[in-house]
Amino acid sequence: MKKFLAILSARNKEFFRDRAALSWNFMFPVLLLFAFGFMFSDESNSLYKVGLIKTSSESTQLQAQVSENKKAFESLKFIDFVAYQDVDKAIQKVDQHKIDLLVDFAQQQYWVNETSSKGYIVEQLLIGQHPNMQRSQTDGRAIRYVDWVMPGILGMNMMFSCLFGVGYVIVRYRKNGVLKRFQATPLTAFEFLSAQIVSRLLIVIAVTSILFIGCNFLLDFYVLGSVLDLLIVAILGASSMIALSLLIASKSSSEEFTGGLLNFASWPMMLLSGVWFSLEGAHPIVQKFSQIFPLTHILNASRDIMTDGASLYDVQYNLLVLAAMTLIFLALGSWMFNWGSERT
Amino acid sequence: MADLLQIKNLSKHYSETVAVDNISFNVPEGCCFGLLGPNGAGKTTTIEMMEGILKPTSGEILFEGKPLDKNYYQGVGIQFQHTAIQDFLTVKETLKLFANFYHKSLPIDELIELCALEEIISRDTRKLSGGQRQRLLLALAMLNDPKIIFLDEPTTGLDPQSRRNFWQLINNIKSQKKTILLTTHYMDEAESLCDEIVIVDQGHIIHQGTPTQMLKEHFDGVIISLPGEIKGALTNNQIDFETKNHRVEILSENIDSSIKFLLEHDISLDGLQVRSPNLEDLFIKLTGHQLRG
Fold it and tell me: Ranges for the ABC transporter domain (chain B) (predicted)?
């Protein structure tokens, strides 16, 4: 334990004393977040979106009436109609301004978000045609692009920090002989590696938390779920990334080669894990492929918690995948690890 | 003196080369043992196998009569030829970091004094000069009060003054009756520090013994050295000589008769030097090429 704590403390000192790298770790995500936040803050869409609850088991006569009412409303131009079966989910969409109005013609009821200007206009159109419908209102805030992209940017920063902050450092240590010097002491590979993991985990979680709290203060993110749950996702996600990095850096002493491997791992994640755009509309093969990346599971879980108020139980699939990835990468990385002294 | 380390039929093969080929020797306790040879002779490979860093292809290494085990590093100190220490730590922090790896360690203040680190104790290790860096690495090797200290070419790349200062530190350690295993390609270093030496070349041991014993065995007399190249007279006469670094070196058993011989042959004595044979001369005699390769 004494050896582990000594290496942990030395690594932490190295990180915090490297001012240039430290400031970049904080500045990079903040710059991205603000750039994207402002770039897309004025996103205007000329179309209106209305959700319609699907009718199912009503009598034929009633169905005919409902269908007639619907048809009349659906004939309005410049409105996109989206069908929903789950009323609660659809109401949440109204809450989040994802749709402007939700109408259930069978129950003669509609929902509108009173803070939505577009909702007000579509509501006027509806009551113009059907003045007797029952009004329900919600007051949820709109989900802005910045709310959606924030987990992506923090996740991406976490990914780079874990992959390059552990993998690159280990390869540099191996190349310049730091690892060999440690090898010539009673320090074991397990003690060394676990100290690297814990050090980076503490650093990444601290940096991500500070960024989240700081940016939340300025941008007031949309967070429906528990922040503690988000923290757990972040810890598990960072662990899987660090373990992946250890695996990538387990053998080589070439910074160029490892840099290539780290880029090979990080770029597809950055493009295909849903950092910048949702994969909902993507080709099913791309969606399936994205499941092999830890970042996909980090982002899916954190967005479900933030925007849908999901619990850890709801995102258990993502958490299990992240835990399994961590264990597999860690076992392989430790097994393949070498201190770098053996030449061929 | 009992043997602290025993090396038996040690070999190391890489895919296309044989770096060390079936060598055996013993390192007595309390001795400063030199492993000498030119660059690429197999010194570092041999010492790294003895340090437990490299795995031998075949052969056996015994420390205090037992094969190397996981506790080996508690009792040995190592200074590598090429190594770095973690960035952004001061000298003192580095010493403290390494002190945590051992069951017992020497007091830091004692090490600071032993390795003359007082002036640089708070300095970032990235800002150390070559000599200061080697002194810190020596302190790290001494930290656990080891039974044996491995020093792999510790003065390579240092200026003459730093080399001499480093020798003084090694002599201080020797006075504590520590066993030292030193590799070097500096013959003056080996002559000044080592009690016993092994000369290796191309993975083989070509000679073994104490420096005095070896020189006595192979040389009888002194070397007379003259500048320039002397042609004619010397080449046609029976005298043991060779040309090295633009000087003619004559191995003489009797200085008077050799000088008389030179004068008789009208050879100018301007720039004449007389010196005792050293290990470098021995190496050239044994292998036919210079020690520094």
Answer: 5-227
